[in-house]
């Protein structure tokens, strides 16, 4: 179990400081005595990795392959204990060997299982050897696999419990994750009973919170054991084997809600034994149920009785060379600010730190937690391997006892898909560990979460889109038209919409990325192993489809314009797909974009670039993810579908406007209506119904030349006039040629700091801001003729103050603005 956060009788002492690290030839030293006395030791941070230490010491340039998987890495330090104690290693990359005073005292077979080492009082030499991984992989032997995936190399990685990061060519950077990726603690021995296990399960019964708790100790406890939470307490009942259990009821508790639906209220839990107080983490009171739909084939989450459309992205560690080490909060705050309700930990990325999970609890971000399995046929029928990975699950889930953000536990990523796509029938690809054993373990350790055996999973084949959970790349990698998002009838997409999304011009300059440097540029573009195309080809396909241009010719003649359209196309598609999935008639209950952030410089899958700056796709999804949502869909001869969603728990009066624009300043069709959106409801209406007359708004009938280019829909507050939600529909090939539309921008002082007042005389398509010192808080939106929008500016960290910036739209020449002196 995860140790308690603080114990007044025996506080855990971090062992984070005074570490040295050395890199030596593989096999050149197998004990501390064999290490050359002149070994080149450098300081190292714990938790941390060898690549981090080498970069900090100036021995390695960021982004440069380290070759550490071909060399041994050693860590060492001295420790002084006044009394005997236990050293707990929360996470060492595997394989690893731990030496105390020159003798090997423990070994590590999984990076996801903590290791404890007893240590007597006195001064001691502590050392850790991390053998070179490549020779270990070359020598690894195991049962013959039933299938051999191409994505992760080498295949023997399925036998070693190490992360797949750095082993996915075309996906992740060439990193070597080696070192103590989680912290170390010294737990002093004490005569007082020490906590051995802790189980928490927080829920709701009507307005009251209920906390079921079960604890056990290493020796009998003479005093009463009391649990305290949210200002209430309850004495636990003693049981057998030094165990205690009970239920605490908290009347009228503040419940935990996902982002956008209410406050993510959490409450500290303490154990009290006499004058001894133990901090046992935080819990959130909520309920969670899975809604399979009327046909029993769907997948949707219901939190506190309220259906939640799960929208978000798959997580990527801020530093791929050190997963679980770097502060996750800045990225998670961007996820929250984009309106996300869920973050997925993919089986390809591994596990995360408790800091990550605590932040998700606080920010209201539901967590879909793949266990660290992906693609392979793992030898789970081997008793030793099965015991090891069972211990992993027990630790990874045991430490999340009571975590309200933990919503879905999944056996792993694309295992059933790989087996099926490579020709196995369902009975040949059966995996009892994931389909029979793990459900019982998850029910015991994480009763607050739903369980899914694999992702994708459900239907006649594991990866079909109209049943269970799927990985949807119809719009995206498979270059299907936008109509496929409806035709696929997606029920829940735990992965979707991967594009090689282009960062802003300023961010590309800071990353020293330029398409003219074809080798370096292409290294930042994701590619599936074995494919003769990459995800830039996918993006270019949609640039051609949306704008009626030849992207290859444009790249050669006007690369800046090619990049601008490349920023716009994925953003338009993502916003449109989620508009489709969130409409009232859709059976979709969630979509998680692949990925949240880039792992390499350049045009990666991330919604956030390598410098932590939101891309155009992040801004688009922030519009698409609003709890109060407005979407437009092309319904052909039936006009445009106007879709309104109120996911909040309060009804809302709104004013809906719809207007279509051509090249002139006045709308060619316009309608307005006051509406009341009921809490937790969605409904749709037709543009024909709203306009009350015929207007070929979708350009479906095509009687004569096009009269208009684009249609804008807006929701405003009827009292204050504040913009609540917006959506746009631009006809293919329209509003894309740069011209004089009367676009203007002026630096102003906003309510919270510097801002831009952006205005236009004609319809403006996909506004962007280019500024070396600031980024715009909103981009990619469309402006109606005569409209002015004030956009706050956010200072870029570590960049000089700029004196000038410029604003542009896809159909406008750029216009400059000056910063105040």
Automatic annotation (TrEMBL):
From the broadest rank down, the organism's phylogenetic lineage runs:
Bacteria, Pseudomonadati, Pseudomonadota, Alphaproteobacteria, Hyphomicrobiales
Q: Which SUPFAM superfamilies match?
A: (Trans)glycosidases, Galactose-binding domain-like
Q: Which domain of life is it from?
A: Bacteria
Stored InterPro entries = Beta-mannosidase_GH2, Galactose-bd-like_sf, GH
Give UniProt keywords alphabetically.
Answer: Glycosidase, Hydrolase
Can the keyword Hydrolase be found in this entry's annotation?
yes
Q: What is this protein called?
A: Beta-mannosidase
Please provide the Gene Ontology terms (biological process) for this protein.
glycoprotein catabolic process
Picking any one GO molecular function of the record gives:
beta-mannosidase activity
């Amino acid at each position: 179990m995860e140790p308690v956060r603080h114990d007044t009788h025996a506080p855990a002492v971090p062992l984070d400081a005074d570490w040295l690290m050395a890199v030596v030839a593989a096999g050149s030293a197998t004990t501390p005595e064999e290490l050359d006395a002149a070994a080149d030791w450098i300081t190292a941070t714990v938790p941390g990795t060898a690549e981090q230490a080498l970069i900090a010491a100036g021995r390695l340039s960021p982004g440069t392959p380290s070759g550490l998987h071909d060399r041994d890495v050693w860590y060492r330090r001295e420790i002084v204990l006044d009394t005997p104690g236990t050293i707990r290693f929360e996470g060492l990359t595997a394989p690893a060997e731990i030496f105390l005073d020159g003798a090997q005292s423990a070994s590590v077979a999984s990076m996801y299982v903590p290791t404890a080492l007893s240590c007597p009082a006195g001064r001691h030499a502590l050392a850790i050897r991390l053998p070179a991984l490549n020779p270990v992989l070359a020598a690894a032997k195991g049962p013959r696999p039933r299938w051999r995936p191409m994505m992760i190399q080498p295949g023997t990685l399925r036998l070693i419990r190490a992360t797949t990061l750095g082993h996915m060519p075309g996906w992740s950077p060439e990193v070597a994750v080696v070192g103590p990726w989680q912290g170390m603690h010294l737990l002093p021995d004490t005569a007082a009973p020490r906590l051995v296990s802790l189980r928490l399960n927080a829920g709701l019964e009507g307005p009251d919170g209920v906390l079921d708790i079960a604890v056990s100790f290493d020796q009998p406890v003479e005093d009463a054991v009391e649990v305290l939470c949210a200002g209430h307490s309850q004495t636990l009942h003693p049981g057998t084997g030094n165990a205690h259990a009970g239920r605490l009821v908290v009347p009228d508790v503040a419940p935990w809600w996902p982002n956008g639906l209410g406050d993510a209220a959490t409450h500290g839990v303490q154990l009290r034994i006499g004058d001894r107080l133990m901090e046992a983490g935080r819990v959130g009171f909520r309920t969670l149920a899975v809604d399979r739909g009327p046909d029993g084939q769907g997948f949707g989450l219901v939190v506190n009785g309220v259906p939640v459309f799960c929208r978000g992205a798959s997580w990527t560690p801020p530093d791929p060379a050190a997963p679980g080490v770097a502060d996750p909060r800045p990225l998670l705050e961007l996820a929250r600010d984009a309106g996300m309700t869920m973050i997925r930990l993919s089986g390809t990325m591994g596990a995360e730190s408790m800091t990550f999970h605590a932040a998700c609890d606080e920010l209201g971000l539901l967590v879909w937690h793949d266990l660290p399995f992906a693609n392979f046929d793992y030898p789970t029928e081997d008793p030793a391997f099965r015991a090891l990975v069972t211990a992993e699950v027990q630790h990874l889930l045991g430490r999340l006892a009571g975590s309200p953000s933990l919503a879905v536990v999944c056996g792993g990523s694309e295992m059933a898909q790989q087996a099926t796509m490579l020709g196995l029938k369902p009975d040949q690809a059966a995996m009892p560990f994931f389909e029979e054993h793990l459900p019982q373990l998850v029910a015991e350790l994480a009763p607050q979460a739903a369980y899914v055996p694999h992702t994708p999973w459900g239907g006649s084949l594991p990866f079909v889109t109209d049943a269970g959970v799927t990985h949807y790349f119809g719009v995206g990698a498979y270059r299907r038209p936008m109509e496929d998002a409806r035709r696929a009838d997606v029920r829940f997409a735990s992965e979707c919409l991967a594009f090689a999304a282009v960062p802003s011009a300023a961010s590309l300059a800071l990353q020293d990325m330029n398409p003219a440097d074809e080798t370096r540029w292409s290294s930042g573009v994701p590619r599936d192993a074995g494919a003769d195309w990459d995800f830039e080809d996918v993006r270019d396909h949609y640039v051609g489809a949306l704008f009626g241009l030849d992207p290859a010719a444009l790249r050669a003649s006007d690369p800046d314009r090619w990049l601008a359209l490349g920023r716009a196309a994925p953003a338009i598609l993502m916003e449109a797909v989620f508009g489709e999935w969130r409409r009232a008639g859709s059976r979709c209950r969630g979509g998680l974009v692949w990925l949240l952030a880039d792992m390499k410089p350049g045009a990666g899958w991330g919604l956030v670039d390598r410098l932590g700056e939101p891309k155009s796709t992040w801004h688009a999804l922030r519009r698409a993810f609003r709890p109060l949502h407005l979407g437009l869909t092309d319904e052909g001869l039936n006009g445009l579908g106007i879709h309104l969603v109120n996911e909040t728990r309060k009804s809302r009066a709104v004013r809906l406007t719809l207007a279509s624009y051509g090249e002139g300043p006045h709308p060619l069709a316009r309608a307005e209506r006051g509406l009341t959106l009921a809490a937790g409801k969605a409904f749709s209406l037709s543009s024909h119904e709203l306009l009350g007359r015929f207007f070929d708004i979708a350009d479906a009938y095509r009687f004569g030349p096009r009269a208009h280019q684009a249609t804008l829909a807006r929701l405003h507050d009827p009292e204050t006039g504040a913009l609540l939600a917006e959506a746009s529909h631009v006809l293919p090939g329209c509003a894309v040629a740069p011209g004089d539309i009367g676009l203007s921008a002026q630096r102003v002082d906003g309510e919270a700091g510097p801002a831009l007042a952006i205005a236009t005389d004609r319809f403006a398509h996909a506004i962007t801001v280019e500024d070396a010192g600031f980024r715009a808080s909103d981009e990619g939106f469309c402006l109606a003729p005569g409209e002015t929008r004030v956009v706050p500016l956010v200072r870029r960290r570590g960049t000089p103050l700029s004196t000038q910036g410029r604003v542009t739209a896809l159909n406008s020449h750029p216009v400059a603005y000056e910063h105040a002196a």
